């Protein structure tokens, strides 16, 4: 299977001229043109500079980068793509090299949500080696074919199934911050792996997880011996798309429940003010069997959830568009019925619904078909703060960790710390190149696959080449834990990376390196010289108008 290499958007602004035409283009140009080694050397300087700035952030002991902002205070970050985007070089040819690497980082970030630093160091290494071999006579096109042979090698991945594995992936992507890893794992456990999870500034010094669902007031809990939950048997269920604020609107439903001696569960957008205080007061003072639950989610998602509940319980949704049904006109047949209802501060379960079985089965089939977009709620990760600079840096890490965790759930995981790429190297020996130049391409990638592990080790203050050599001599799951400075079983320690992130970084880096290898001419705009406007005549001195 042949991988498709993505063409970076920045190439839309660059004209590439075939090598065979170069000797004949000797006249004066309207634009600045550089050929062969001259152009490649300048581009490589830009690639090198940007890659060095990004590489310093790699691994658990990577350092932060401070970037000047055009507004506000400086930004402190360990996010590779943020560092890459912040760099502009004055020299046009160097800047083209830097922009190409930025494009690799952007592509990887958009596709996988993480892995931008890995992609950056990979493309830098491939470009360096490629230019060096081309300068010694190797054919660029054949080198590219050799690189593509390597990209077609498939990484074996392990599916992510448990909350512990989810936390491990998130922790690694958050640069070893276990608190971030655990809070993301907790969010996915509570609202589903494909759920809506957002990151925003918190109001306290601590990181917090907010789940938008569950009982609205803890005062609905009467039987403390059962823990913080409210349990009803054979209950009526009132469903409303709208917020309930007036007590008069729910009195008819309460009267129906009282007449039939059944508990009442109210599930609505929200219940507040007079309605909530009245329900709580009656629950505490007279033992009214009632609980109010905030419907999960927002917008269309919440509407669909309420419709599903209505089908499951055999009730109606009040406030639904197209229906003239109002809460004041409620009848017993408008209320859903649940054999058992359990409500906690995190959510609610409706069991043994009394809805029409045919309708329920139809709904189940529709949900199965749309499983990829069905979630159990909405989670908001609130990042604790002591200053704006700190919270912005931490939000970058939380966002990276969240993206990496989603990628891991999607395609599984491989060994972290650069070990997955190292373990690919022996498998490349079985590849059969068509010629020596293709073999050179394969060898370039073999050496490049060592770079991420070496960079992580270097940032931890140890010799990267020695670390890589020892990893290659160890068993398949052994790698280097840069945080503690020891060789460990990476799977047991939870040092793992999302397969999608590693594959995307390698694919994007190989694609860019291949394009750079075949670029022989670079054309740039010549800066326009600003003419001296001169000094106009002063008013009253006969100078007239300046046009």
TrEMBL record:
GO molecular function terms here?
Answer: ATP binding; ATP-dependent protein folding chaperone
Transport keyword on record: no
Highest taxon of the source? Eukaryota
Against PROSITE patterns, the record matches this protein to: CHAPERONINS_CPN60
Give the location in the cell.
Mitochondrion matrix
Q: Which GO terms describe its biological process?
A: protein refolding
Query: Do you know which CDD domains this protein is assigned to?
Result: GroEL
As for family, the record states: Belongs to the chaperonin (HSP60) family.
Oligomeric state and partners? Homoheptamer arranged in a ring structure. The functional units of these chaperonins consist of heptameric rings of the large subunit Hsp60, which function as a back-to-back double ring. Interacts with 2 heptameric Hsp10 rings to form the symmetrical football complex. Interacts with HRAS. Interacts with ATAD3A. Interacts with ETFBKMT and EEF1AKMT3. Interacts with MFHAS1.
Q: Which NCBIfam families match?
A: PRK00013.1, PRK12849.1, PRK12850.1, PRK12851.1
Please identify the protein, giving its name as recorded. 60 kDa heat shock protein, mitochondrial
Lineage of the organism: Eukaryota, Metazoa, Chordata, Craniata, Vertebrata
């Amino acid at each position: 299977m042949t991988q498709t290499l993505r063409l970076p958007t920045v190439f839309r602004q660059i004209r590439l001229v075939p090598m065979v035409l170069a000797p004949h283009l000797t006249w004066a140009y309207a634009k600045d043109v550089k050929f062969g080694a001259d152009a490649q050397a300048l581009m490589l300087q830009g690639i090198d500079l940007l890659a060095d700035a990004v590489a310093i952030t790699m691994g658990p002991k990577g350092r932060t980068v401070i970037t000047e902002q055009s507004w506000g205070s400086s930004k402190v970050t360990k996010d590779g793509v943020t560092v890459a985007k912040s760099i502009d070089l004055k020299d046009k040819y160097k800047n083209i090299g830097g922009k190409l690497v930025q494009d690799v980082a952007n592509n990887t970030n958009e596709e996988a949500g993480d892995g931008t630093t890995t992609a950056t160091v990979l493309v830098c290494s491939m470009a360096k080696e490629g230019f060096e071999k081309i300068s010694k006579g190797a054919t660029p096109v054949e080198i590219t074919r050799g690189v593509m042979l390597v990209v077609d090698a498939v990484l074996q991945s392990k599916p992510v199934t448990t909350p512990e594995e989810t936390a491990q992936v998130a922790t690694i992507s958050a640069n070893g911050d276990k608190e971030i890893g655990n809070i993301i794992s907790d969010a996915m456990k509570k609202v589903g792996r494909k759920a809506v999870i957002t990151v925003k500034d918190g109001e306290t010094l601590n990181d917090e997880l907010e789940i938008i669902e569950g009982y609205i007031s803890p005062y609905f809990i009467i039987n403390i011996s059962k823990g913080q939950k409210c349990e009803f048997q054979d209950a009526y269920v009132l469903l409303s798309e709208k917020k309930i604020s007036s007590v008069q609107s729910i009195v008819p439903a309460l009267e129906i429940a009282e007449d039939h001696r059944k508990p009442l569960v109210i599930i609505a957008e929200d219940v507040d003010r007079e309605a909530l205080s009245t329900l709580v007061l009656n629950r505490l003072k007279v033992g009214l069997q009632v609980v109010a639950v905030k419907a999960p989610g927002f917008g269309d998602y919440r509407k669909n959830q309420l419709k599903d509940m209505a089908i499951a319980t055999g009730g109606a949704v009040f406030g639904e568009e197209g229906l003239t049904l109002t809460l004041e006109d409620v009848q017993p047949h408008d209320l859903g019925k649940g054999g058992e209802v359990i409500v906690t501060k995190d959510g609610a379960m409706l069991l043994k619904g009394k809805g029409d079985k045919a309708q329920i089965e139809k709904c189940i089939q529709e949900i199965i078909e749309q499983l990829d977009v069905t979630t159990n709620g909405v989670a908001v990760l609130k990042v604790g703060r002591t200053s704006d600079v700190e919270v912005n840096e931490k939000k970058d890490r939380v966002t990276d960790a969240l993206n990496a965790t989603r990628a891991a759930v999607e395609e599984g995981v491989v060994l972290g710390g650069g070990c997955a790429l190292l373990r690919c190297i022996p498998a490349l020996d079985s590849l059969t190149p068509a010629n020596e130049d293709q073999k050179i391409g394969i060898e370039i990638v073999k050496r490049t696959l060592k770079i991420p592990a070496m960079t992580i080790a270097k940032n931890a203050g140890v010799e990267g080449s020695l670390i890589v050599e020892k990893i290659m001599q160890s068993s398949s799951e052994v790698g280097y834990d840069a945080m503690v400075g020891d060789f460990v079983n990476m799977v047991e320690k939870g040092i793992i990376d999302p397969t999608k992130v590693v594959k995307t970084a390698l694919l994007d880096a190989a694609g860019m390196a291949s394009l750079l290898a075949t670029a022989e001419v670079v054309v740039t705009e010549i800066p326009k010289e600003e003419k001296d406007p001169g000094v106009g005549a002063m008013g009253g001195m006969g100078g007239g108008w300046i046009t």
